[in-house]
Amino acid sequence: MAIKRIAVLTTGGDAPGMNAAIRAVVRYGISNNLEVMGVFRGWWGLINEELKVLNHRFVSGIINQGGTILKTARCPEFETEEGQKRAFNTVKKNAIDGLIVIGGNGSFKAAHIFGRKYNVPCIGIPASIDNDINGIDVTIGSDTAINTALAAIDNIRDTATSMERIFVVEVMGRDSGFIALTVALAGGCEEAVIPERKFNLEAICHDIVNGNIRGKISWIIVVAEGVGSAVDIAKKITEMTGLETRAVVLGHIQRGGRPTAASREMALNLGKVGVDCLLKGETDKTVGLCGGKITTVDFETAIKKKELKVDDLYSLIKILT
Q1: Which residues contact 182 (CB under 8 A, 6 or more apart)?
Q2: Which residues belong to the active site?
Q3: At what angle do helices 142-163 and 178-186 cross, to 10 degrees?
Q4: Do the beta carbons of residue 285 and residue 297 sit within 8 Å?
Q5: Which residues face 295 on adjacent strands?
């Protein structure tokens, strides 16, 4: 079947670089004589037929913008039979020959189920600050999120050193310690508390007290949000050590901001390859970087739990601090 019209949507949490990916899909698609439709608010927009034909001008000036001009939304309705039927009716009614889904692990799970169930060609472009897609090295937006968190931790380090305090910094990572581990290592932090590794608060406090006796005047602990509250952990550290401890929750500042060069370049290249995949009749796959080369990975593999080299990274953090 010849591909004439495709649709692009962004789903799940936003990630810096999504706009660059949209731009690449639209302009490269048009250059291949495709009509490209934009679906607004992710799966919700597909269910409720909120879409429009996109042109060169619509994606002008967005390459440096964070977030997504197509918007995104959580959509529990898409998990229902009725919601999926309505989404498929939108696809049929608008003669859409294939979908490009820009998002993370949850987005690809939904695309995998929907595409197979209704025989709709779906190609994924991995965009997630959590870097949670199995089988590829890195997702669009993760580099930007790490640099955003790292800049904040560098600033906190100045105050921690000046005021001789302990800081507990909470970063994003509900199910993954990727951001916490990476910024803890790159920021020279003393501890990383992550979902993949059971932590012992008594041991951490023991290290803090011993370090304080030796003259160590500051300490930064990075906590992934899925493990617990930085506020609660900071309070317990103060109670257990008698040393002043402050909590900082970085929150959603990690999702926004201008995408780094790495996030933009990846988004533009993967957007182009995603369109090529649909043109070649491929489906149920994500494109991505693996070993420095662009490849495709079946959704069935991509949605499996991605294993981090937790022990190696954690050990390096402790050795270097």
Answers
A1: 146, 313
A2: 130
A3: 50
A4: yes
A5: 288
pLDDT digits (tens, 9 = 90+) for 89-129: 999 999 999 999 999 999 999 999 999 999 999 999 999 99
* pLDDT tens readout for residues 176-216: 899 999 999 999 999 999 999 998 999 999 999 999 899 88
125, 287 Cβ separation under 8 angstroms? yes
Its pTM stands at: 0.94
CA angle 14, 15, 16 (to 5 degrees): 130
d(CA 91, CA 154): 47
pLDDT given for residue 226 in this prediction: 87
Which residue ranges form the domains of the chain, and what is each CATH number?
5-141+259-302 (3.40.50.450), 143-255 (3.40.50.460)
State the virtual CA torsion across 105, 109, 115, 116 in degrees, nearest 10: 140
Residues ≥6 apart with Cβ < 8 Å to 269: 24, 294
Structure tokens at 187: 């920021």
Token digits for 56? 């060169």
For the beta carbon of residue 148, count every other beta carbon within 10 angstroms: 24
